[in-house]
Specification:
Length: about 120
């Protein structure tokens, strides 16, 4: 049985970033094998994976910021329940008394989450 069979990481490879410094990272053999089959090579595949992860976490980060901005506002806990129940009119009623910039940010996040267009 080889180290590849049991998933022992290969020694780390050096990767020269475009900004002129070296980054050291370790992957399991199956990861290196998968990267080797990707169009454009491992660098392109890794950049795409990092970008996907960044975008996936972006919504979570925005929700945390909204919580920090509006967590003490009237109806803060009820607003997301209305939103995710598909009751957008109720959501707008709940957030109407919030400060304008906080309310506008909440609406932007709501439309992103529900894949709808904001009212003009």
């Amino acid at each position: 049985m080889s180290r590849d069979d049991i998933g022992v990481p290969r020694p780390a490879r050096l990767h020269r970033a475009d900004v002129g410094f070296l980054t050291l990272f370790m992957l399991l053999p199956r990861h290196w094998d998968w990267l080797a089959t990707q169009p454009g090579g491992s660098s392109v595949a890794l950049r795409k994976l990092v970008e996907q992860a960044r975008l996936a976490n972006q919504d979570k980060d925005q929700r945390h910021r909204l919580s920090a901005m509006a967590g003490n506002e009237s109806g803060f806990e009820e607003a997301p329940r209305a939103l995710f129940a598909g009751r957008l009119e109720r959501f707008d009623e709940i957030i109407a008394p919030w400060p304008t910039d906080v309310r506008d940010h909440a609406r932007k996040l709501a439309h992103t989450a529900t894949h709808t267009e904001p009212a003009a």
